[in-house]
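Page 47, continued from p. 46.
Same chain as before, 310 aa.
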Amino acid sequence: MSELVTGEAVTLELRPAKLPSRALAVLLDLVVVGLVYTVVTIVLVISTASLDEAAQFALSIAAFILVLVGAPIAVETLSHGRSLGKMACGLRVVRDDGGPIRFRHALVRGAVGVVEILMTFGVVACIASLVSARGRRIGDVVAGTLVVRERVPVGRTAFVPPPPPWLSGRFAELDLSAVPDGLWLAVRQYLTRMRQLDPQVGWAMAERLASDVAACTGTAAPHDVPPAAYLAAVVQERQVREARRAFGGGAATGGPGSFGPPVRPQAPPAVPYPYPPAAVSLPLPAPVTGAAPQDPAADHRPSGGFAPPA
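Result:
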């Protein structure tokens, strides 16, 4: 990603195009321009057969300049930096500040491109793009432009696991208006990655986040609920309130934008729970002489459909 600062002091994160995609776009443009130039040349040869040699040479030079130089400049100007090859490859030419290019930018790029692309078969442009940190050729440096990618692959949205069904609606009266956005983001990141964490580290992190959320809400977290399940239930409750406010019903208390406890008409339907099921509590057999002692902490581990990270 490349950070560009606009005239309004706004930082834009753009992804500069790499050399392979740019080379493919230029190749497609050259193929189209070459076909057009061939058709125009044939038409000129047929229509100017009666003229003298000097006039035919002048017309051929004019056709070369108009088709191979003027046409790409006009296309980039009218399309705001998107030629046919760039459209096919998902690229666009923008200014250094991220804005759309104008005629002077396209003119400078096209004029310099005649030397570094057409006359040197693209060798100079490739070397300049490899040397430049943002993949710019000499024409981009002189014109103050940058070729960026428009079609950036969208990352997969992290799945936030829902809470156990027996926790749905339990925190409907909880006041979530004082929980900051940074804490919500930390909770979501933990819930989406808790299976990738070390069990002990994940359990300690869940307890710390649960205590922070409970301190912001002013209500202590229930002792009979694992901290990870408590966080998942609170996040689901916030999503339910946001959906109700966005699609009708509004915020019940606290004014616009608050997450105060609304009046819940009915509990949300139960959803499949992605966590591994908790171990079923079975009666322990009589201790055998010489056997390892039982872990006293195992009797206090929570059960009831939720397996904590530990």
